[in-house]
Amino acid sequence: MTRGLRTFLTFQGGAAGAALDLYRDVFDDFELIDIDHYGSEDGGPEGTVRVARFRLAGSDFSCADSPVRHEWGFTPAVSLWVDCEDESELQRLFDRLGDGGTVFMPPDDYGFSTRFCWVGDRYGVTWQLSV
Which segments within 39-92 are labelled E, that is strand? Predict the structure, then answer.
């Protein structure tokens, strides 16, 4: 029997800790549940994230710094959807997550949502924000 489902974000180059810091700063309800770092004899760069569990907007996530170099990264084909309270929250999240990132769709009325945007953060994770 399945015990649960959560999104797992695989970072490279030690970016997981910095991404967690960004999400803690951006999201008011960020909760770091658990974090484990690589030690000097663990097979990954010492001090990087072996695995972390965190919660945003009532959803559980895990992330890690992969000690194995992959040819792939994050893709906009899979993104995190955030239902925002209002336009000011959407704009705040867009500004913070988009700082140093990529804008795929700027905030606008696209018909399916009165206010929507799609942005990739500086670590490659993509976010669809909607009011």
Answer: 49-56, 59-65, 80-83
Judged by DSSP in three states, 98 sits in helix
Lookup: tokens for 94: 């867009």
Question: How far is it, in rounded angstroms, from Cα 21 to Cα 113?
Answer: 29
Bridge partners, residue 32, by sequence: 54
Residue matched to tokens 């905030």: 107
Q: What is the pLDDT along the chain (131 residues), one digit of tens a residue?
A: 888 899 999 999 999 999 999 999 999 999 999 999 999 988 899 999 999 999 999 999 999 999 999 999 999 999 999 999 999 999 999 999 999 999 999 999 999 999 999 999 999 999 999 99
Return the SS3 of 114.
coil
Does an H or E element contain 36, and which? strand 31-37
- 17, containing H or E segment: helix 15-26
